[in-house]
Design brief:
Order of helices and strands: HHHHHHHHEHHEEEEEEHHHEHHEHEEEEE
Helix content: 40-55%
CATH architecture of the domain at 197-231 and 257-479: Alpha-Beta Complex
Strand content: 15-25%
Number of helices: 16
CATH class of the domain at 197-231 and 257-479: Alpha Beta
Distance between the termini: 85 Å
Shape: globular
Number of strands: 14
Amino acid sequence: MGKEALVQRNQKITEEAKAILDAVTEETPLTDEQRARLAELDEELTRNESEITRIEEDEKRAQRFKESRAKWGGTQVAPPKEDPFDVNLRTADERALVSRAQRVLAEDKIGTEHLTDGQRSRVEKILRTKNRDSNGADVARLLLATENEHYRSAFPKLIAGRPDFTPDEVRAIDAVNLAARAMSIGTPSAGGYAVPVLLDPTIIWTDQGSPNDIFNMARVERITNDTWRGLTGTGMTWKWDGEAQPSDDNSPAIDQPEVETHRADGFIPYSIEVEMDWPSFASDMSTAMQRGYSELLARSLTLTAAGGNAPTGLVSALDADATTHVQVGTAGVIAPVDIYGIWAKLPMRWRRLSTVAWMANTTVEQVIRQFGAGADADANFTVRLNSEFINPLFNREFVENDFMAEAPSGPGTEALLVLGDFRQYLIAQRMGMSVERIQMLMDPATGRPTGQRGMVAYARLGADVLVPGAFKLLKNKSA
């Protein structure tokens, strides 16, 4: 069927579907037969639109080839290279979207010059991911919508409130709104604009590039829905049986944890000069968004209690679970025996994993450094005062977190030291950030413009402990 016939057929499909829906009232709801017919019509409409898109792409390709041949006066001119952005984002199949997005990542020098190798690898992995919590094709669609030259030029205008859009920019904004709605990201009707994918810290922020150690070591899942859903279990229990004896029920206990995402927002000021040049704008905005986002998460992923409008912090979750607690031997004192004790209390199945690590405040780290020095030095601890960080304990990494309690000076109940498999702390990062604009910032002292604009950015993230038994928490004691 040709393009014109397909267009005519789609018009008839639309008319038939409208007639069915127009007849629906509270007294006469849709019948099963009508629902089935609407589903058939929708499937045929989608199939026809995809075929129309393919035909149009073939026509454009043929036209470009014809123009090139006419220009160069020969028949051996190769067809021009396909533009990865030249695609119908609504009807293209998922494989085509991912393939085109990968080409942009590999070939677009202007749009990707601010990315590190780690960030490129992260986006590549996201594009290839497809499971019940994340669909790389959704990110590919958003990337193709936001990283073309027209949305790049429109985005600074959007957040600056400038109305001087070109026709191409208007079409690009419409395409982004369509892609953003598919991922439930802010749109102008709700006051927000989708951040270009390769600036968005919820997508390009790599674990290894973060100064946030919990984020580095935790299990991070990038999702395109609002809640991560998983499975955890304690493993199957085996036993020996005699000949011809029936087996016991050795089925493992399976949990289905859910981690809900929560909204975070942040303010980003930037100069008018920055928005005039895309490479500078891209680099500065990416850095600013990541820095502020990291600072927020560093505290929240440590101390936020469960049940609020924020991700559950690791230390707070363990502090609320008495099964993870190990008390110091002497109130107000951290001694070598406490370090041996918490290591021994962590079950061997977790202790032997390379993903196990220690975490404490810098002052607690300094106490532990001193175990290997002085008259009562413990030979199993070593001290390198010229080293920025403490040596590994029991061949496991030790990281600082100054949001945790300082070394005790007396009795108390503070959480002093975490030991465990940080992969059992899950961070669900909802991909896709939106921003709202602030036209002009004013000097609070003079009330005059500062030459800066502002963005309020919105992102969603959740976190929680999946397996509390994978951790131990060393606590002070009150007496």
